[in-house]
Specification:
By secondary structure, the chain is mainly alpha-helical. It folds into two domains: 333 residues, no CATH class; 81 residues, Metalloproteases ("zincins"), catalytic domain (Zincin-like). It contains 16 helices and four strands. It has a four-stranded mixed beta sheet with strand order 1-2-4-3, with helices on both faces. A hairpin with a 6-residue loop joins strand 3 and strand 4. Helix 3 runs antiparallel to helix 13 and helix 5 packs antiparallel against helix 6. The chain is globular. 35% of the residues are buried. Bound molecules: zinc ion. Zinc ion binds next to helix 10 and helix 13. One of its GO terms (biological process) is CAAX-box protein processing.
């Protein structure tokens, strides 16, 4: 069989594996959150809180969509015309057109152009968040964060670009196989190291102070059968008033993190409710599920790029001879951008289902739907969320069930449990 035949077979196997993982690990049937309860919950929220949340979301909307459109246009313009190839050539010229310069500098140049053209929209978003009192960081801090993330992306991008184009050179017929394995391995590696290597670049993490709350949370984790080495507090208040918590990492790097803003704004019972939700993620191995689907998806993407990349009209549009050469990097980015946009709603749906399961876990573990609901109310109030966002936006972007859905789930649970 030819490499191309093997690639088709591999892609089919990867897609099948993704479907199996999706069918087995994603909780497709969600706990009930009747619409009638949602509407009742919406009526129970203070009208001025709902209005303020909606006003912020409306203020963010134009910039978000224009930014998305500009990002897509730039990707298509660079990838589907010879402009991207020109840019890569230009970046390699001072280095005698050496392939490493084209691969690394050219690749970074393509990403940087897209980043810089969408930068005004990021700044605009920050100005809106500041106006609404949600962002607490001045422009200096914002710029430092931005430069840090550029630097981190550049290091990661340089490594990936160098690795990828070395493989396409060494194995011109089989690079897709090595590339797919490398992409999957990178996703797994990043899941392990992000919490210890990347998160500390942006925030300081300190173990939660000894005290009744810490004792309560540790006992909760023990009762839940989830070994948690530590509950960490992130100094999120340096850039936002928003409250949040999350789990990240795998195995030895797994941690539960709460924002310092959460400890400041919420009652201890509400913090317990949030941590119970995070324990649900840990217990159901949601980080593993995300990592596994991410790894399979990345591998499938590499193989699909190889197959699509043999389509001559596409290569001719981009002014390149092969998808595997550095000059075709902008074409790769264009394809990945389009696929990312299409895959967005599916990812959001999967995420919402997983979040709804973690909510159900929090309700069962604490047996305290009233506090759970109070917490949802507070989350929406402090974070200025739209408690019941427009349907299309919700389907496209929402990674969590809406506030009214989460409140309705608590009410349905309370009825069921007779509380
Ligand atoms: Zn969650």
């Amino acid at each position: 069989m030819t490499p191309r035949g093997w690639a088709v077979l591999t892609l089919a196997a990867l897609v099948l594996a993704l479907l199996v993982v999706g069918a087995l690990l994603v909780p497709w049937s969600r706990p009930p959150a009747p619409r009638a309860d949602q509407l009742a919950a919406l009526r129970d929220l203070p009208a001025d809180q709902v209005a303020r949340g909606r006003a912020l979301q409306a203020a963010l909307r134009p910039g978000r969509y224009t930014g998305l459109a500009v990002g897509l246009l730039v990707a298509l313009l660079l990838g589907l015309t010879p402009l991207g190839a020109r840019l890569v050539e230009l970046a390699g010229r001072p280095f005698g057109d050496h392939w490493i310069a084209r691969a690394v500098l050219g690749g970074i140049a393509v990403v940087l152009v897209a980043d810089l053209l969408t930068l005004p929209f990021a700044a605009w978003r920050q100005s809106v968040l500041t106006r609404y009192g949600l962002a607490t960081q001045g422009w200096g801090g914002w710029t430092v964060d931005l430069l840090k993330s550029y630097a981190l992306s550049a290091v990661l991008a340089a490594t990936v670009l160098l690795g990828f184009y070395t493989v396409t050179r060494l194995a011109p017929r089989w690079w897709w196989a090595f590339g797919a394995a490398g992409a999957a391995g990178l996703v797994v590696l990043l899941s392990f190291v992000l919490p210890v290597l990347v998160e500390p670049v942006f925030n300081r993490f300190t173990p939660m102070e000894q005290g009744p709350l810490r004792t309560e949370l540790t006992a909760l984790a023990a009762r839940d059968g989830v070994p948690v080495r530590d509950v960490l507090v992130a100094d999120a208040s340096r850039r936002t008033r928003a409250v949040n918590a999350y789990v990240s990492g795998l195995g030895p790097t797994r941690r539960v993190v709460v924002y310092d803003t959460l400890l400041r704004e919420a009652t201890p019972a509400e913090v317990t409710s949030v941590v119970a939700h995070e324990l649900g993620h840990a217990r159901d191995r949601d980080v593993w599920t995300g990592t596994l689907t991410g790894a399979l998806g990345a591998a499938a993407a590499v193989v699909a790029l190889y197959l699509v990349g043999s389509w001559t009209p596409l290569l001719r549009r981009a002014g390149v001879d092969s998808i595997a050469e550095p000059r075709a990097f902008a074409l790769l980015i264009a394809l990945v951008t389009v696929v990312g946009l299409v895959a967005g709603p599916v990812q959001a749906l999967v995420s919402r289902r997983i979040e709804a399961r973690a909510d159900a876990h929090a309700l069962a573990l604490t047996g305290d739907p009233a506090t759970f609901e109070a917490m949802q109310r507070r989350l929406a109030g402090v974070n200025l969320a739209d408690p019941d966002p427009p349907r299309a936006e919700y389907l496209w972007f929402a990674s969590h069930p809406s506030t009214v859905e989460r409140m309705a789930a608590a009410r349905a649970y309370a009825r069921e449990a007779g509380r």
